[in-house]
Amino acid sequence: MRRAFLQLLAVLAVFTLFAAACGDDDESAAADAESECVLGRGVSDTEIKLGSSQPLTGNLAALGEATAFALNGHVDRINAAGGINGRMLSVVIQDDEFMPEKAVANGQYFIEREKVFAVWGSVGTAPTSAAIEIHDDAEMLTLFPFALNKDLIDVVAHPLYFSHAPPAYAQTKAWGKWLVNDFRPNEELRIGMMVINSADGEQTTQGFEASIAGDSLVDNQTWERDATTYGPQIVSFIGNEVTDVYLGTADTQYAQFIQEADQLGLEARLWGSSGTITDNVIALTGDLSEGVFGVGFVASSTADIPGIQGYRDLMFGQGADASHLGTASLIAYLSGLVVEEGLTQAGECLNNDTFVEAMESITDFDTGGITQPMTFTSENHLGNNSVVIFEVKGGAWTRIN
Amino acid sequence: MTENIQLIWQGLVSGFAYALVGLALVLIFKTARILNFAAGTMAGFAGFLAHWWAADKGLPFGVAVVLALLAVAAGTAVIEHLTVRPLLKQGFLPIVVVTLGLEVLLANVALRWWGGSAQRFSVPYEIDRTNFMIGGVRMNAWHIVIAITTFVVLAIVGYIVNRTDLGLSMRAFAEDQDAARLMGIRDATVSRVTWVLSASVGGVTGILMAPVLFLQQDYMNIIFIKGFVAAILGGFTSLSGGVFGGLLLGTLEAFAIKWAPRSLAAALPVVIVFIILLIRPRGLFTRAKSHSRV
Fold first, then answer.
1. Cβ contacts of A113 within 8 Å, gap of 6 or more
2. Global ipTM
């Protein structure tokens, strides 16, 4: 009897030990699973911290000011709805005056001091191109800047870079094709271009030269950041009898060019780059803006489509006025929608790997008509590659293609 | 030929602004040996104030301009009294640091007050939209206003400096501050008048350039930098040198953009200035003193 009792005890002991061992396995597996999830830099259980470098002072401050409205608007909107996967968003916006060296300094600040998850919605090709190296070195995501350098969208070189802005090269190439095929198929065109005197400006010109209209480029001018007049370039365009001038500038520079073109009697059609499609151009130049064109990649900020309605509601809800509506703030708004989708799909375990994987799985993302539906893959981090042409008609930018 | 004349005219229009800012900088440096790094922002304030009174408050344009210039002059007198004068005898560096601080302060005040967006500066009868041809050269009426105003300001400043007792005091102070004090010239008065005169010249420039560059927080900063180069070119102690330097720089820029290779266009005017200074380190219009102070 006693022996049987001892045998039963032994069996129970073995069973208990086995069960305990099994239980340990379950717990350690759960613990392992938890320890496998390493949250990304700037991500805590309650917060996702982002950074953004903007020209808040200097002659391009209007772009940064408008963009900040859109970024802060998204943060407020998302947080008011309970955040993303239980985490609140925050964004630290630093001034770079549109100067590359200050954008680099801001990048270091975001990495070392603020320890942000990603740099989001920054403005400027030159500042972004300068800062991308330290972002990459620190394995920090660069999300949807207003930057048009075609080298940035090379996934192999910059695997943590995502964009919705077609490079200037692609924009002018597409514009050249549209100009010859659709706009003036039977007209002899004499094209003048004025782009910023930099490698980025060269890409803009190269894009047009690579288009089927490339041979019609007869006058290739540049402008400097410290320019006080575009008179000499306009004199050259007049001398070369150009029919069309493409201007790779921001909106205030475009407005000044429109004004000076009138003063000097330049009779060519004027085509501004994507940064010029703002109400500010119309406000600054009044009637002179009637009939000028813009080459962009998002819908007009006054278009009657659901995406634009959401954009306007968010901007005006932040205290913006009509002068803040334009390409810069619109693409910042758009970037917020896509980033929100990526962060949501990345799930609770948020880090670079899960975010990139989530972004690369986004297919036909509906932007409410602001752009074509966006798709990202592991080979393509540029979600939008369409070009939209506008003309100022009746005091408003109107899409014509 | 006509194209080159047109280029010269375009260069001169910018050059007039550089010349006026150069003049404003030289006025202070010549008299008190101070560089005012806030000159550009102070000039921009005049443009903003004139616009504010004319467009927002509905005052007649001329009244708004006069009020803006008076406000800038009065503000400068206060700034001079509070920040510059206490440091007058402390040497060059402390006052330069003060002007740098002022620049940052005023730039931020402008940003807070008027925002970062560019605004149109409307002038009466849309003069800036009126164009005409003279001898094959196309001209804008506001550019003519800039040219005429520049010559009027030069004449007024020239008269004050060369023909009045105040100007005599300024010149005496510029020549030898200690000797001027011994002769009974009050350095406080000279300092205040010089700053106010300089700020007024800058203010006129700010208003003249507002319709050209649009009102932006720091729209006069570029003009200030070019005016600074103009003043260096002229020798920094010669009023006429600063003016000529500005006109030369504006014209050089216009021709460099049109004719120089793209890679050199931005740097060429500065390179030319550099070469001139290598040949004449004192600037184009400053004579070497025949004697040294003991």
1. none
2. 0.89
If you average pLDDT over residues A199-206, what whole number do you get?
91
- Mean of per-residue pLDDT scores for chain A: 90
Count of structural domains, chain A? 2
pLDDT, residue A250, reads 85
Same-domain pairing of A155 and A201: no
Q: Which residue range forms the structural domain that includes residue A334?
A: 47-166+304-385
CB contact under 8 Å between B214 and A252, yes or no, is yes
What region, left, alpha or beta, does residue A369 occupy, with left being phi > 0 and alpha being psi -120 to 50 degrees? left
Residue appearing with tokens 């962009």: A296
Q: Phi and psi (nearest 5°) for B69?
A: -65, -40
Query: Are residues A133 and A59 part of one domain?
Result: yes
- pTM for this predicted structure: 0.83
Q: Does A228 touch chain B (CB under 8 A)?
A: yes
Identify the pLDDT of residue B294: 41
Average pLDDT over residues B279-284: 80
Report H helices in A292-326.
306-317
Cβ-nearest to B107 among A57, A239, A324: A57
Token digits of residue A299: 């819908």
For residues A208 and A173, the answer to whether their CB atoms sit within 8 Å is yes
Please indicate whether, in this complex, the C-beta atoms of B257 and A259 are within 8 angstroms of each other: no
Structure tokens at B187: 């350095």
Beta strand A293-296 with A388-393 is: antiparallel
The alpha carbon dihedral of A186, A190, A196, A201 has a sign of positive
**In the predicted structure, residue A39 carries a pLDDT above the cut 50:** yes
Same domain for A182 and A232, yes or no, is yes
Q: Is residue A351 part of a domain?
A: yes
What's residue A24's pLDDT?
47
Both A266 and A378 in a single domain? no
pLDDT in tens, B62-101: 999 999 999 999 999 999 999 888 887 777 788 889 899 9
Same domain, A212 and A201: yes
Q: What is the pLDDT of residue B44?
A: 95
Q: How far B225 CA lies from chain A's nearest CA (Å)?
A: 9
Predicted confidence (pLDDT) at residue B117 exceeds the cutoff of 90 = no
Q: Count Cβ atoms below 10 Å from residue A5 Cβ, excluding itself.
A: 9
* CATH at residue A367: 3.40.50.2300
Secondary structure class of B29 (helix, strand, coil) = helix
- Asked if residues B41 and B106 have their Cβ atoms less than 8 Å apart, the reply is yes
Indicate the residue among A296, A329, A350 that finishes a domain.
A296
In a domain, A392, yes or no: no
Cβ of A62 within 8 Å of Cβ of B117? The answer is yes
